[in-house]
Amino acid sequence: MNLILFGPPGAGKGTQAKILQEEWGLVQLSTGDMLRAAVAAGTELGKRCKAIMDRGDYVPDDVIIGIISDRLDHADSARGVVFDGFPRTTAQVTALDTMLAERGQKIDGAIELKVDEAALVGRVEQRKLETGGARGDDTSETLRKRLEVYRTNTAPLLDFYRAQGKLSSLDGMAPIPQVASGLRHVLEGLRGH
Ligand code: ADP
After folding, report:
1. Which residue stretches of the chain have pLDDT < 70?
2. Which of 39, 46, 85, 168 is most buried (CB neighbours < 10 A)?
3. Catalytic site residue 71?
4. Which of 114, 128, 135, 145 is catalytic?
5. Residue minimizing CA distance to atom 16 of ligand 1
6. CB burial class (10 A; 0-12, 13-18, 19+) of residue 158?
7. Which residue's CA is the nearest one to ligand 1's atom 1?
8. Per CATH, which fold does 3-191 belong to?
9. Which residues are 111's β-sheet partners?
10. Measured between alpha carbons, how far is 47 from 38 in angstroms, rounded to an integer?
């Protein structure tokens, strides 16, 4: 089973993707985590992306699509994947469909974590405290930019999955276990198909 988690920055995609990984054995593919690992390792790719990420913009599609394509070739991806932070643009949606089709796979479901934008500022501030400011993009100015980029580029992609009957929406403002339980229902429904 292959899933996508959608939601603005701070919606809880990473938290829920990790729970899905533990409960369902799905592999979490977080493009944000992969990019941060590249930055930390000081690779060419990391150097190219750091400034873009720090100002809250999206890194180029070809970079992201390359990373995901490599990752899908790993054997563990065949168990099923939860995409966290990908796709975020129309080009990425198209590329994902093609990459999965080439591997005899497809997206089974997309889940939107709906959140109140005003509350996200508080969440991201909290994350900053908890991580000691490890993420260069967790500042309130960058967050505003990331929210705007999400609204413009990524939120419209939900229509694509809605039109295919694959989209579910969950209240991302609910406590973590409640969101996780909502996801469990969605996955059970998908599995029953
Ligand atoms: P968040 O969901 O909180 O914005 P992520 O960790 O998913 O955080 O992403 C952090 C940053 O990494 C993004 O602001 C962007 O610069 C870059 N990034 C991650 N995934 C993508 C993607 N699919 N396309 C373009 N840029 C991406």
Report:
1. 193
2. 85
3. no
4. 135
5. 53
6. middle
7. 9
8. Rossmann fold (3.40.50)
9. 5, 168
10. 8
